[in-house]
Amino acid sequence: MTLQTVLMAVSKGDTERSEKLVETATEIAKPAGATVALAHVFRDDEYESVRDDLGFEKDSEVTPSVVAKRYAPIRELLDRLEAEGVDCDIHGSLGDGSVGERIVELARDVDADLIIVGGRKRSPAGKAAFGSTAQEVMLNADCPVTFVRND
Predict the structure, then answer these.
(1) H-helix or E-strand spanning residue 135
(2) Which of 77, 60, 71 lies closest to 7 in space, CA to CA?
(3) Residue 130 pLDDT more than 60?
(4) Is the dihedral angle over the CA atoms 84, 36, 95, 134 positive or is it negative?
(5) DSSP secondary-structure letter at 14?
């Protein structure tokens, strides 16, 4: 399989595992010359809050991708990946449904050959009670998924 695009799904919790995410993406994408598509799915309430925090006018027509380019978790990973010599681009989306479904759709939109998702170890009861975005991506993606978790 030739890698051209690797989608990395980024959540605000990924700052805790950013070193592992950067290491994984660099090991996978750099030798292949692949682009890492950093992507964040904003929930509606989060999107409004982040827009306000970043100083966007309430009535301005700003896309989720523009907001994602200035979103701190994306910026941190972008800076670190670029320092490693990895080509990146940024994508944002509004999640009016399941975040996992939107990540899978974004992967299709960018024609991803691989998805990287971060997460934490959860008990079976925790997955049943709260769901798991990473699990949903792994079960529904059209391409392989690499899971990066905290120790």
Answers:
(1) helix 133-140
(2) 77
(3) no
(4) negative
(5) G
Q: pTM here?
A: 0.89
Q: What are phi and psi of 111, to 5 degrees?
A: 55, 50
Identify the DSSP state of 131. -
Counted domains in the chain: 1
User: What percent of the chain has pLDDT above 90?
Assistant: 60
**Joined tokens for residue 82:** 């670029």
Which whole-number Å values give the CA distances from 71 to 50, 114, 119, in the listed order? 8, 23, 19
Domain containing residue 91: CATH number:
3.40.50.620
Looking up tokens 């989306």 gives 93
CA distance 35 to 129: 35
Q: What tokens appear for 20 in the block?
A: 């592992």
Tokens 């890698």 correspond to what residue? 3
